[in-house]
Amino acid sequence: MAIKKVILSIDGGGIRGIIPGQVLLHTEHLLQEISGDKNRRIADHFDLIAGTSTGGILSCAYLMPNKEQRPKYSASDVVNIYFERGQEIFANTLVHRIKSLGGVLDEKYPAEGLEKALNDYFGDTKLNELLKPSLITAYDIRSRKAKFFTQHDAHKPASNFYVRDITRATASAPGYFQVANIRSMDKKFYPLIDGGVFANNPGMCAYAEVRKASKRDESTVGAAEMAMLSLGTGYTCNSYKYKDAEHWGLAEWMVPLVDIMMSGVSETVDYELMQLFDTTGHPEQYIRINGELKNQDASMDNVAPENFKALERFGNTLFKKNRKKIKDFLEMTWRD
Question: Model pTM?
Answer without folding.
Answer: 0.94
